[in-house]
Amino acid sequence: MRVNAIQAVPATDIRALLLDLDGVVTPTAEVHRRAWAALFSNELRARGASPDYSDDDYFTYIDGKPRHDGVRDLLASRGIALHDGLPTDAPDAETVWGLGNRKNDEFARILAEEGVTPYPGSIALIDAAEAAGIAMAIVTSSRNGKRVLEAAGLADRFPVVVDGVRAAQLQLPGKPSPATYLRAAEELGVPAADCAVVEDAISGVAVGADGDFGLIIGVDRGVGEHALRRAGAHVVVSDLAELVEHVQTGALRWKQPNDRGEEATS
């Protein structure tokens, strides 16, 4: 367990959890990775671009970002520039939005055929937080946020959901800007300093530092503990079940370090 930075000492109490969805609550990050791989393996090969697409590309250029930003950044890494186009572009359009919509069609196909089951450890934490009176919100760049919550049977567990669709309606920039997380905290009525950001993506973890949130929890689903800590995670776990005892005992709190990079330890 890697939660030694959480202290049961006088400090800022965490009153709300702001959870990313894909890779944190549900294993849909794997579905996203498969959909992105299907898109870019074909697209890069068709354009004669190298190197071939890999999982490293997903973590470096795509993970946690709004879909069109991921498309643009991955293509730029291969020296390819496309017109942005419009969000309404057809999936066969050779534009940034067209490719993003093509990927989304593949994601929706996999989700419809295979469904999604939440991580048991994440459900255990959600149950414990609810019992402890800790508020919760989902914050995700995905425009499929509500669809995924419904497929996972979690649509009624979160009073606040700020997903890609809602962010666009509110004209909020995506990660690594903290705007969507700050909006979720505002809607819960909890100051950012009393909120914990729970993220598996480097760009998402960076949100916590930029938004001055009280606690930044990194969930290592493959990006690596050191990468999450470098991005600003105070705590890194491999499964959210590791935090259940801290919630149940009222010890989910963070004693701020004296200067950046020095953690409090038990």
UniProtKB/TrEMBL annotation:
Keywords from the UniProt entry: Carbohydrate metabolism, Hydrolase, Magnesium, Metal-binding
GO terms assigned for molecular function: hydrolase activity; metal ion binding
Protein family membership: Belongs to the HAD-like hydrolase superfamily. CbbY/CbbZ/Gph/YieH family.
Coiled-coil stretches noted in the UniProt entry, renumbered to this chain: none
This protein's record includes keyword Disulfide bond: no
SUPFAM superfamilies to which the protein is assigned, alphabetical: HAD-like
Record's protein name: HAD-IA family hydrolase
Cofactor: Mg(2+)
Annotated organism of origin: Pseudoclavibacter endophyticus
